[in-house]
Amino acid sequence: MTLPRAAVRAIYDRVGARQDSQSWYEDVALAELIAHGRFETAETVLEFGCGTGRFAVMLLDAHLLPHATYRGLDLSGTMVDLATQRLRPFGGRATAARADVTEPIDASDGAYDRIVSTYLFDILNGDEIRAALSEARRLLAPDGLLCLASLSRGSGLLPRAVSLAWQAVYRVAPARLGGCRAVRLPDHLDGWTIEHRATVVRRGMTSEVIVARPCR
Fold this sequence. Notes:
With 216 residues, this protein is of the alpha/beta class. The chain has one domain: Rossmann fold. The protein contains 6 helices and 7 strands; from the N terminus they run H-H-E-H-E-H-E-E-H-E-H-E-E. Strands 3-2-1-4-5-7-6 form a 7-stranded mixed beta sheet, with helices on both faces.
């Protein structure tokens, strides 16, 4: 069972910039996503769940074309404010706005070369994931890519132990974990062709990284 959207928004409004403290395990997954997401050829990027804008700055600083544009969406107003401040040096190339990506997004069909979502699907329930993926399919350009990273179940002694401990806490107090739990991304990607899939581990925390395109 996942948290209601209002509860999720309240958590991340409260957490604010402390969300960046998770970089110690997220960055290895983000590096894997950058290595296989072909961002150097993208001209338009949309991020579902932009958080504080940390990943956006990584892309804009070193991996996107000089004229490429970025748009970030997040349910939390606090996160949007933080991302907006972070993106200010990039001027009109980069914006952030409040939106629920499980609902229709104000953008035309095929508007984006890349749609990115990192550590968001592990907060959503199955219906919400399907809604977000449906909107991603509509918004992706014909040769566009979906780039995902999420918490996943670990294998091996330490990753498995960490996963079991996380699940135990989630069952009794999901809000303490930001509503995040391990998910298996391929289970939700019927109708998508997976071009790259990897599992990465940092100090026992397991993440899954996927780059996919819609089946046409």
